[in-house]
Amino acid sequence: MPITIALPNVLARLADGHRTVEGSGGTLGDVVADVTARYPSLRPRLVDEGGNPYPFVTYYLNDEDIRFAGGFGAAVNDGDEVIVVPAVAGG
Amino acid sequence: MTTITTARPALSRVASAALVGRPGADTGRSDPGHSPAAPAATGADPLPLLCRRCGSRYDPAPIAICEECLGPLDPFYDRHRALPSRTTIEARPASLWRYREWLPFDGSPAHSLDTGCTPLVEAPALARAIGVARAWVKNDSVSHPTLSFKDRVVAAAINAASAFGLGTFGCASTGNLANAVAAHAARAGLPAWIFIPHDLELGKVVGTLVYGAHVVRVRGTYDDVNRLCAQVADRFGWGIANVNLRSYYGEGSKTVAFEIAEQLGWRLPAAVIAPMAGGSLVTKLRKGFAEFHLAGLVDGELPRLYGAQATGCQPIARLVESRGDRLIPEIPQTIARSIAIGNPADGLTAAAALRETGGWAAAVSDEALVRGIRILAESTGIFTETAGGATVAAALALAKSGHLRPDDEVVLCITGNGLKTVEAVTAALGEAPIIAPRLREVEPLVAALAGQQDPEPLVAASH
Ligand SMILES: [Zn+2]
Fold first, then answer.
1. What is the least distance, in Å, from the CA of A14 to any CA of chain B?
2. For the domain with range A3-86, which CATH number is right: 3.40.1400.10, 3.10.20.30, 1.10.246.130, 3.40.50.720?
3. B439 assigned to some structural domain
4. Does residue B441 belong to any structural domain of this protein?
5. N or C: which terminal CB in chain B sees fewer CB atoms within 10 Å?
6. Which residues are in the CB-under-5-Å shell of ion ligand 1?
């Protein structure tokens, strides 16, 4: 079972309109690399130039902000759910 | 301008559009994806939007982030628009719309015309307690209609929601915004969906439900609620005040700065201190003071801006101290629920606003902020909530550390009302005696106090 990534509408249009995409790998970074290999125009909105999470999105792995879980280095398992939301919201 | 008066009647949308026109409206990108969900219902036309990061322009729409870079969008004001004089502003009704040229609409707003213009109260005993020359309280604890500064931002957001024809209004909230969204939606006749952490103070929950709003209590922190709301806005196409209407919403906070400047007699204080949750308020205070300065309505040095947080949730204060460029989120642990945001959206800009104006941040313990609530009440006669207690306690700390100076004139932004968070102070206040209705039971109470001196008064007596 792959890992699913839920995208906001603003990014779904860069993934052929898919609100959810699937990828595989041992870490979140691997999964993102897998997904962005298939949807290259997503890459600059998910990964910054240094290979880190793009600062204007926030990633949640099974509801936890990945900055509490090791960032792209966080280990993932089959069936995990990743949610990406734009960082600028709320307050 | 310390009292709230009857609102002026709104011009019809057609008439206002004809009178004012729409400068800049034709400069936005034309893209069907950015179009409002339905034709404008009533009132004012929201301004076009501009990406703060990459400069991309968008037609007016319920969007808050740039499609190109995901950066924040700001309303785009025509630099050549006519601006009012001091006299013109002073002659307008006492509401935040007296500053309408700096609010993100063309034409006349249809809703919430009576919000704003809260008192600016001089507080000499508080100034002595802090150790500064003069102090004022910008008292948004009596904001109309829901007793917090969130009425200002929601006054802007509800007009945007209405203009875009959005059928449902909502928010993610730590409480004050929930109250404001529910009340302003009720007045505008819009249904409201409001998402809050499950364990908020009772006053904030009741003060939302009473307006007939759909209130959803989410198991988790505010940051969990906020993430959910970002998804809700995406999925249902609702007008979420602090998500997809955020570009318009945030501008309402500038009116705190405008009112301070006008109420001081068209001048600027040396320093302003405000609580920080998402970081938007200090960011918009900076923008507001700068806009009045640019317009020639005030001159002199721009105020140094200071921000208050609780030690149990201080991501922005840590950023100020570290001078870093990446915010490190926190899991909040404080009784100051209204400022318990561990992943503040405007954290970076807020930290920059404090540092670049020559200000600073302070984080205070829960115990210190409860003491801050009592100090403000005993010195000034104003009962504020936990965020206000943190603001007072931070002012004391910043004076002790030399950031606030003895010759400073300081304004404290007191953004919410203490009756909403009575849980926070109840234990610190002690019991009131209960007696039979007999004079002889009063006498010993009075006698017991005679000759007693408070060993540690919260506020020094005036001399
Ligand atoms: Zn942009």
1. 10
2. 3.10.20.30
3. no
4. no
5. C
6. B 51, 53-54, 56, 66, 68-69, 71
Domain encompassing residue B134: 1-432
What is the tens place of the pLDDT at every residue in B224-249?
Answer: 999 999 999 999 999 999 999 999 99
- B313 is a domain residue: yes
Total number of domains in chain B = 1
Residue type, B121: V
For A4-7, the CB contacts below 8 A with 24+ separation are A4/A80, A4/A81, A4/A82, A5/A31, A5/A32, A5/A35, A5/A82, A5/A83, A5/A84, A6/A81, A6/A82, A6/A83, A6/A84, A6/B231, A7/A42, A7/A84
| Rounded CA separation B422/B425 (Å) | 6
Complex prediction ipTM: 0.95
The strand pairing partners of B194, in sequence order, are B171, B215
- d(CA B193, CA B170) in angstroms, rounded, equals 5
How many CB atoms are closer than 10 A to CB B139?
23
- Rounded to the nearest angstrom, the minimum Cα separation between A37 and chain B is 19
Q: What is the CATH number of the domain that holds B326?
A: 3.40.50.1100
**pLDDT tens for residues B177-236?**
999 999 999 999 999 999 999 999 999 999 999 999 999 999 999 999 999 999 999 999
User: In angstroms, rounded to a whole number, what is the distance separating the alpha carbons of residues B31 and B53?
Assistant: 20
Is A17 within 8 Å of chain B by CB? no
* Angstrom distance (rounded) from CA B90 to CA B352: 32
Model pLDDT, residue B456: 73
Please count the other Cβ atoms lying within 10 Å of the Cβ belonging to residue B347. Answer: 26
* A6, B27, B94, B121, B434 from B2: Cα distances, Å: 49, 39, 8, 9, 38
Domain residue limits, chain A: 3-86
Residues of chain B scoring pLDDT < 70: 1-42, 455, 461-463
Residue whose tokens read 């100034």: B127
**Chain A, window 23-42: residues with a beta carbon less than 8 angstroms from a chain B beta carbon:** none
pLDDT at residue B203 in the model = 95
* Residue B455 covered by a domain: no
CB atoms within 10 A of CB A83: 20
Query: Between chains, do B67 and A10 touch, taking CB under 8 Å as contact?
Result: yes
